[in-house]
Amino acid sequence: MSLEENKALVRRFLEEVWNKGKLALVNEFLATDYVYHHPTGMVLHGIEKYKQLVSEVRTAFPDIHFTIDDMVAERDKVVYRWTLRGTHKNEFRGIPPTGKTVTMWGIFIDLIAGGKFVESWDRYDTLGLMRQLGVIPE
Which of 17, 32, 45, 135 could be a cystine partner for 130, CB 3.0 to 4.6 Å? Predict the structure, then answer.
């Protein structure tokens, strides 16, 4: 795939899976041996584990919306800086719903082969999120 096709794949993935919650489409985007490196150090292996992650986050923040702020592609990788907005309406990792609307930033690096995501590295402002939810004082 070309660099532009890889970038388009990332945009479509964020829109369809994360913003619209179409979990059934995850299989179209991820390789069967997909690996996701979470900012906490957790590593998820496989499509079903990733679907569980998306479901958990979308349940906690049902109006979640990702916006891509910057994107660069080179060889088989796409790197992008994103902003997320959502309202904390259900439990999130043991934190009871606060009703607060949060804004968070992060950076993803996606390795793409054969038109599918093979591996991803995610880093986001965990401290900022916890402060906005009131878990950690300002």
Answer: 135
